[in-house]
Structures are given as structure tokens and as C-alpha cells.
């Protein structure tokens, strides 16, 4: 039982990061109807930016904020300079998805060029080796910080989407773009902001993943795939679904790793997803898109 | 100066000329009805005015200012609201939210007030929306999800959302199509009411000739992307070109 609680909590901690990655993917899918395959690489680029800032002796807080802004700027620049012109020329959805793949490859190359391929340790103010005991559960400073940071990010994002005028405009734009436009909502600006926010949330996840893993140009690949899986598990068009999906995936992974075998950690987590999707193809909280033509 | 002036408007899709040099104007305060057979370019005209399509040639002036090539949201912010032939509502939101979204552009940006929760402005907007709800008889559906409402109600919600923008010019694309005959009469009555109550100029597309001529101060008839007749409803209905477009040419045999 003690072990179970321990695995549960560490699963929630890592799962909350998957949730952050998943939210970023869902935000873009909901509003643009495309899958953003560059999400992991934008995150990597942002995290490397923080790494460079830290190496030049900037404080962690400054570097983290700069990394968020940097990631967001890449995503917004991609939207304005590549995606919008492509959409003007009636690019298909598949074409637009391939454009994100292209962006991912470009960023990957750039990160390798500027950052090198050697794995490096990422200096982080929270330590993995300072462990707190809460009841029967022990949690490292880092896991605790991760959980707090990602839950706070999710909460702030929820407030933004549900309680602000910008959030309302975002919801209206993703539900029905032409209608939002005819109401005078500047949809292009709103979509650019969505891209920026999605990337920012991704970079938050990247900053907390980098100290746990080692920082190299491919360190986000696995978390990106997990976030993707979490998003599909929750239902690709549901924001609460993304959070739930991420947490379930994290817990499933931790429990399997703990009780079965570390080797099965990834496989069993994905078996869970397959089973869920067999029963509910639209994901746990997803709703099918229907459009009357 | 006319409220809306359209000069030699051209647009083609591939080889098809949807609008082939349309010329007409809308006077301040009038109800102008556009009629014409299917495919004559009525909806395309609306899409050009509201910025959804970019015309290949010609000019559109709204209050003397060119709006050609502006984005749909900029045009909406200038005071042109519209409804769609196939509804474009926020189906997952309730009726009230759909109407409030129409007020979105009217909110002045003031973060300080938002933080202090000073709601005077919001109250003002909600009052206006309540007025629309009363006017369109939507009280019973206020909290209902739009996707659960019957078609006739959805049409009213879309009309209400356009009114929430307090437009100078309201474009209505077949506002009574698909309604029951009772609803048709109600809507026709409401359209004439709108002008008096909301001080709005109305440009509408309509198939139903009977109602179109009852509503209109003036009429424009379209065929194959060109206006073929303009004038009072009586004039337009008597126009030989219009009769030919609607009923077809008298056959040779009959004439003999």
C-alpha cells in the first residue's frame, strides 16, 4: 500500500508534465485543426535558450521567463510567416501538418548546431536529491516543484480560457472561425496568441523535464510522444481531457514500472491507451466534431 | 452619399464568373432586397461585402470609405453585421453566450476595471442583450445550448447575435428560408421592426418573392452575377428580364 501511494504520487508528478505538453497540442488542434509535430522541438529550443542564458550567468528566473518568451516567439513567427501564407494559398490540413514537421526538423538542426549533441546536465534551483517525507511518501524537491508548477500553470490557463475576454475570444475562434470573424473578433491575432501560449506551456514542461533527464537535442522526443498520447487519450479537442489524459498516463507508467517491471513501463501505459480508445474512440472527454454543410 | 456603394464588382472562381460587374448602392435607412435564382451571385455578393471573399475587381465603399480587401473582423468592427444562409453559431455555447459574444468588440479594454471587478460596463452590455432577448422572444431559451434548440430558434439567435453588434448595416442571407409559414410571417414583421428600433439599414437576400416584396423599399434582381433590374418591388416584378429569369422564356410553340 505504501509503495502504491509512492508510485501514485510520482506518477502524478511526471504525468502533470505530460498534461502540460498535451494542453499545448490540444490548444493548437482545437483552434487550427492541425497536429503540431514541432511542439517538442519548439520546447527543446526554448529549454536550450534557458540553458544558454544560465551559462552566461543570468539568474534562473530571468532565464526561465526569457525561455518562455523565446519559445512563444518561435511559434508565433511560424504561424504568421509560414502557416498564414500557406492557408492563404489553400493549403490542405495534411500540408499544414507537414509544415509543422518541417519546422520541427529545422529547429532540431538548429539546436544541434548551436547546442551540440552531447547530453548536458541542466542547472536547476530545485534538487532531485533533497527528499521530503510526507507520511509514507517521499518526494524529491524537484518532483514537488514539478507538481506545483504544472498544476499552477494548468490552473492559470484554465482561468485565462474560462474567465477572460481573451479566453472567450479563443473559445469562439476555435469553435467557429467564420462566425467569430463576423463578430469582429480579430481571429488571426487570437490564433497567434494561442500558438504562443501553447509553446509557452510546452517550455514550462521542458524546463522541469531537463533536470530530470539530461539535456540534449532529442530530450523532448519521448515526453512529446507521451503528451501526444495523453492528448488523444483525453480526447484531442478537450482541454480538461488533456490534463486527465496526462495524469492517467503518468500514473499508469509509474504503477507499471513499480509493480511489473521498468522494462514494461512504456508498453503497458500505451496498452491502457489502446484499451480506452477501443471503448471510446473519441477519447475520455472528447466530443466528435460535426459540421452541417 | 449612399451608405454602401458598390461599383463594377467582379469575382471569379476558376473559370466561373460569380459576379460580373455588379453596380448598386444602399441608401441610409432603407430595406433593400436582393432577389435572383440560385447561383446568381447573391451570397457571393454578401461574402464580398463582409470580407470573406476578396473580389478580383471593382470597389466597395461603406460610408464613403473603401472596405475592399479588409479582413472580416475589421469590416464587422466598422459596423457591418451579417447572418448566414447555413447558420454559423457557437453550437456548444448557450444562447446567452452567443449573444454576448456579439458584444465582444464593444468592450473597452481596461484591465484595471477588470481586476477591480467594476462591472458597470458589463451590466450595460447585458442590458442590451436582454433587450434583444425580449425583442426576439428568446426568454425560454436563454440558458439552452444552441445545438439543442429548434431550427427556428437558432435562426433567431443568429439574428440576435448580429443585432448585438449594433450594426449600421445588417446583411441578412435568406433569413426566412427553412422556417414554418407562421415563423416566416413573424420574422418578416421583426425585420421591419428592426429598422425602427435599432436604427439599422438592412440589405437582405430572399427567395420568397411574396415576402421579399412586402419587406423591401427597393429591390435589386440578380442573374448570372449581374444586376438585371432595380427599383421598387412593383417595378422589378414587372420587369421583363426578371420574369424571364424566374419563369424562363415563353416557348416558341405557345407563342404560335
From TrEMBL, chain A:
<dbReference type="GO" id="GO:0022857">
    <property type="term" value="F:transmembrane transporter activity"/>
</dbReference>
<keyword id="KW-1133">Transmembrane helix</keyword>
<feature type="transmembrane region" description="Helical">
    <location>
        <begin position="6"/>
        <end position="27"/>
    </location>
</feature>
<feature type="transmembrane region" description="Helical">
    <location>
        <begin position="259"/>
        <end position="279"/>
    </location>
</feature>
<keyword id="KW-0029">Amino-acid transport</keyword>
<dbReference type="InterPro" id="IPR052157">
    <property type="entry name" value="BCAA_transport_permease"/>
</dbReference>
<comment type="similarity">
    <text>Belongs to the binding-protein-dependent transport system permease family. LivHM subfamily.</text>
</comment>
<keyword id="KW-0812">Transmembrane</keyword>
<dbReference type="InterPro" id="IPR001851">
    <property type="entry name" value="ABC_transp_permease"/>
</dbReference>
<dbReference type="Pfam" id="PF02653">
    <property type="entry name" value="BPD_transp_2"/>
</dbReference>
<keyword id="KW-0472">Membrane</keyword>
<feature type="transmembrane region" description="Helical">
    <location>
        <begin position="227"/>
        <end position="252"/>
    </location>
</feature>
<feature type="transmembrane region" description="Helical">
    <location>
        <begin position="134"/>
        <end position="161"/>
    </location>
</feature>
<dbReference type="GO" id="GO:0006865">
    <property type="term" value="P:amino acid transport"/>
</dbReference>
<protein>
    <submittedName>
        <fullName>Branched-chain amino acid ABC transporter permease</fullName>
    </submittedName>
</protein>
<keyword id="KW-1003">Cell membrane</keyword>
<feature type="transmembrane region" description="Helical">
    <location>
        <begin position="94"/>
        <end position="114"/>
    </location>
</feature>
<keyword id="KW-0813">Transport</keyword>
<dbReference type="GO" id="GO:0005886">
    <property type="term" value="C:plasma membrane"/>
</dbReference>
<feature type="transmembrane region" description="Helical">
    <location>
        <begin position="190"/>
        <end position="215"/>
    </location>
</feature>
<feature type="transmembrane region" description="Helical">
    <location>
        <begin position="60"/>
        <end position="82"/>
    </location>
</feature>
TrEMBL record, chain B:
<dbReference type="InterPro" id="IPR032823">
    <property type="entry name" value="BCA_ABC_TP_C"/>
</dbReference>
<protein>
    <submittedName>
        <fullName>ABC transporter ATP-binding protein</fullName>
    </submittedName>
</protein>
<dbReference type="Pfam" id="PF00005">
    <property type="entry name" value="ABC_tran"/>
</dbReference>
<dbReference type="InterPro" id="IPR003439">
    <property type="entry name" value="ABC_transporter-like_ATP-bd"/>
</dbReference>
<dbReference type="GO" id="GO:0005886">
    <property type="term" value="C:plasma membrane"/>
</dbReference>
<feature type="domain" description="ABC transporter">
    <location>
        <begin position="4"/>
        <end position="249"/>
    </location>
</feature>
<dbReference type="Pfam" id="PF12399">
    <property type="entry name" value="BCA_ABC_TP_C"/>
</dbReference>
<dbReference type="InterPro" id="IPR003593">
    <property type="entry name" value="AAA+_ATPase"/>
</dbReference>
<dbReference type="InterPro" id="IPR027417">
    <property type="entry name" value="P-loop_NTPase"/>
</dbReference>
<keyword id="KW-0067">ATP-binding</keyword>
<keyword id="KW-0813">Transport</keyword>
<dbReference type="InterPro" id="IPR051120">
    <property type="entry name" value="ABC_AA/LPS_Transport"/>
</dbReference>
<dbReference type="GO" id="GO:0005524">
    <property type="term" value="F:ATP binding"/>
</dbReference>
<keyword id="KW-0547">Nucleotide-binding</keyword>
<dbReference type="GO" id="GO:0016887">
    <property type="term" value="F:ATP hydrolysis activity"/>
</dbReference>
Amino acid at each position: 500500500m505504501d509503495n502504491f501511494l509512492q508510485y501514485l504520487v510520482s506518477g502524478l508528478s511526471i504525468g502533470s508534465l505530460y498534461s502540460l505538453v498535451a494542453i499545448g497540442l490540444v490548444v493548437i488542434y482545437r483552434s487550427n485543426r492541425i497536429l503540431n509535430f514541432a511542439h517538442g522541438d519548439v520546447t527543446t529550443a526554448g529549454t536550450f535558450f534557458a540553458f544558454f542564458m544560465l551559462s552566461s550567468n543570468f539568474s534562473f528566473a530571468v532565464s526561465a521567463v526569457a525561455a518562455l518568451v523565446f519559445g512563444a516567439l518561435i511559434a508565433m513567427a511560424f504561424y504568421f510567416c509560414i502557416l498564414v501564407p500557406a492557408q492563404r494559398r489553400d493549403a490542405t490540413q495534411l500540408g499544414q501538418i507537414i509544415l509543422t514537421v518541417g519546422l520541427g526538423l529545422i529547429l532540431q538542426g538548429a539546436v544541434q548546431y548551436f547546442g551540440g549533441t552531447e547530453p548536458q546536465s541542466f542547472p536547476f534551483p530545485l534538487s532531485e536529491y533533497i527528499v521530503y517525507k510526507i507520511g509514507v511518501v517521499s518526494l524529491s524537491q524537484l518532483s514537488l516543484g514539478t507538481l506545483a508548477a504544472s498544476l499552477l500553470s494548468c490552473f492559470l490557463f484554465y482561468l485565462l480560457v474560462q474567465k477572460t475576454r481573451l479566453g472567450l475570444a479563443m473559445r469562439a475562434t476555435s469553435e467557429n472561425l467564420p462566425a467569430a470573424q463576423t463578430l469582429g473578433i480579430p481571429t488571426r491575432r487570437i490564433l497567434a496568441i494561442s500558438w504562443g501560449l501553447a509553446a509557452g506551456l510546452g517550455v514550462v514542461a521542458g524546463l522541469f523535464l531537463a533536470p530530470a533527464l539530461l539535456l540534449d537535442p532529442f530530450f523532448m522526443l519521448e515526453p512529446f510522444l507521451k503528451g501526444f498520447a495523453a492528448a488523444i487519450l483525453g480526447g484531442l479537442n478537450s482541454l480538461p481531457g488533456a490534463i486527465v489524459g496526462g495524469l492517467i498516463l503518468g500514473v499508469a507508467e509509474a504503477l507499471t514500472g513499480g509493480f511489473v517491471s521498468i522494462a514494461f513501463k512504456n508498453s503497458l501505459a500505451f496498452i491502457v491507451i489502446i484499451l480506452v480508445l477501443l471503448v471510446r474512440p473519441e477519447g475520455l472527454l472528447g466530443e466528435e466534431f460535426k459540421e452541417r454543410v | 452619399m449612399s451608405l454602401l456603394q458598390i461599383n463594377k464588382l467582379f469575382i471569379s472562381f476558376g473559370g466561373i464568373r460569380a459576379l460580373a460587374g455588379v453596380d448598386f448602392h444602399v441608401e441610409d435607412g432603407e430595406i433593400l432586397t436582393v432577389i435572383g435564382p440560385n447561383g446568381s451571385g447573391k451570397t457571393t455578393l454578401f461574402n464580398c461585402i463582409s470580407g470573406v471573399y476578396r473580389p478580383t475587381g471593382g470597389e466597395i465603399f461603406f460610408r464613403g470609405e473603401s472596405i475592399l480587401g479588409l479582413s472580416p473582423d475589421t469590416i464587422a468592427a466598422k459596423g457591418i453585421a451579417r447572418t448566414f444562409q447555413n447558420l454559423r453559431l457557437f453550437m456548444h455555447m448557450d444562447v446567452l453566450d452567443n449573444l454576448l459574444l456579439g458584444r465582444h468588440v464593444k468592450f473597452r479594454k481596461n484591465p484595471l476595471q477588470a481586476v477591480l471587478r467594476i462591472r458597470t460596463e458589463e451590466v450595460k452590455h447585458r442590458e442590451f442583450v436582454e433587450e434583444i432577448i425580449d425583442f426576439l422572444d428568446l426568454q425560454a431559451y436563454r440558458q439552452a445550448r444552441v445545438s439543442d434548440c429548434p431550427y427556428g430558434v437558432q435562426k433567431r439567435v443568429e439574428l440576435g447575435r448580429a443585432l448585438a453588434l449594433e450594426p449600421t448595416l445588417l446583411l441578412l442571407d435568406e433569413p426566412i428560408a427553412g422556417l414554418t409559414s407562421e415563423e416566416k410571417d413573424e420574422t418578416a414583421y421583426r425585420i421591419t421592426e428592426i429598422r425602427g428600433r435599432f436604427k439599422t439599414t438592412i440589405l437582405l437576400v430572399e427567395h420568397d418573392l411574396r415576402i421579399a416584396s412586402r419587406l423591401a423599399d427597393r429591390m435589386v434582381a440578380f442573374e448570372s452575377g449581374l444586376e438585371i433590374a432595380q427599383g421598387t418591388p412593383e417595378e422589378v416584378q414587372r420587369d421583363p428580364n426578371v420574369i424571364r429569369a424566374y419563369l424562363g422564356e415563353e416557348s416558341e410553340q405557345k407563342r404560335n
